[in-house]
């Protein structure tokens, strides 16, 4: 399986529409990959809270349509990162916004939708403005050579909550896809937790972070792909824009689970 992890680096001076056009062109050049992954909230930015309402769109809005078109033109499964979704009606907390990830097939169709379960901000930011998702999402990703791989979807701050990944593993996930807008101040946690989720679930972990500075917050970069053994197969530099193109051996994950069957010894 060939995976492209796109670590976008940008600042607040780049307009929303210009960034969408730039990223669409970038993804269009990544033909030949089974999966392309973009970061969390890369168009509206993860820390510019005051812009979220103005830049929110419905699930079938222009941003989603552009991402669908670029997935189809490149012929890839595209995890388009996340965007600020304007919900059809307020949720349980009374909010009409959500941090929503979109997974698209090589024909542009929607394979999965994930709304971020764990909202970052300690009462401000996401909890004050966005509804929390309530679903554990695991999706079958088609492979260009035939067959599929079962992937669990999560976003950024979710990485701190291992019970979500255990639920996904119990639902058959062999691969976790984690887009993020993780700041530089805690980037050591980002890389460590990604390896931990891989080791404890014996699953591949694909992490796409942002670089640059958003609303005065330096971003952490260090996007990475981690094998089920915890080995880091590829890692991007801190803060720089980069594309990691990585070949992963799905059979190796299955073989590792078979020869070192830790998961079979669970008692709780």
Write a structural description:
The protein is an alpha/beta fold. It has helices spanning 16-28, 52-55, 62-74, 126-129, 162-170, 187-201, 250-259, and strands spanning 2-7, 9-10, 35-37, 77-86, 97-104, 110-115, 130-131, 137-142, 148-153, 175-179, 204-208, 211-214, 217-218, 224-226, 232-235, 242-247. It starts with a strand and ends in a 9-residue tail after the last helix. 25% of the residues lie in helices and 29% in strands. Helix 1 (16-28) packs parallel to helix 3 (62-74). The strands form three sheets. Strands 1, 3, 4, 5, 6, 7 and 16 form a seven-stranded mixed β-sheet that branches. The longest helix is centred in the C-terminal third of the chain and has 15 residues, at 187-201. It has a single domain (2-265), classed as Carbon-nitrogen hydrolase (Nitrilase/N-carbamoyl-D-aminoacid amidohydrolase, 4-Layer Sandwich). The mean pLDDT is 97. It is globular and about 50 Å long. It contains seven helices and 16 strands. The relative contact order is 0.16.
């Amino acid at each position: 399986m060939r995976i492209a992890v796109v670590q976008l680096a940008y600042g607040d001076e780049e307009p929303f529409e210009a960034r969408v056009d730039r990223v669409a062109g970038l993804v269009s050049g990544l033909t030949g990959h089974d999966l392309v992954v973009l970061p969390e909230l890369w168009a509206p930015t993860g820390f510019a809270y005051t812009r979220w309402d103005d830049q929110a769109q419905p699930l079938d809005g222009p941003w989603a349509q552009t991402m669908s078109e670029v997935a189809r033109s490149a012929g890839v499964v595209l995890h388009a990162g996340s965007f600020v979704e304007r919900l059809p009606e307020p949720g349980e907390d009374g909010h009409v916004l959500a941090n929503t990830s979109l997974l698209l097939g090589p024909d542009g169709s929607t394979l999965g939708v994930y709304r971020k379960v764990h909202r970052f901000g300690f009462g401000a930011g996401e909890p004050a403005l966005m509804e929390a998702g309530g679903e554990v999402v695991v999706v079958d990703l088609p492979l260009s050579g035939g067959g599929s791989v079962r992937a669990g979807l999560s976003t950024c701050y979710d990485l701190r909550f291992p019970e979500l990944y255990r639920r996904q593993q119990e639902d058959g996930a062999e691969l976790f896809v984690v887009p993020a807008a993780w700041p530089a101040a805690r980037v050591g946690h980002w890389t460590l937790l990604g390896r931990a989720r891989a080791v404890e679930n014996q699953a591949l972990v694909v992490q796409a972070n942002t670089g640059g500075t958003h609303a005065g917050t330096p971003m952490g970069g260090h996007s990475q792909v981690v094998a089920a053994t915890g080995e880091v197969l590829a890692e991007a530099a801190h803060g720089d824009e980069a594309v990691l193109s990585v070949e992963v051996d799905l059979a190796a994950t299955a073989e590792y689970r078979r020869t070192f069957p830790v998961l079979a010894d669970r008692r709780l």
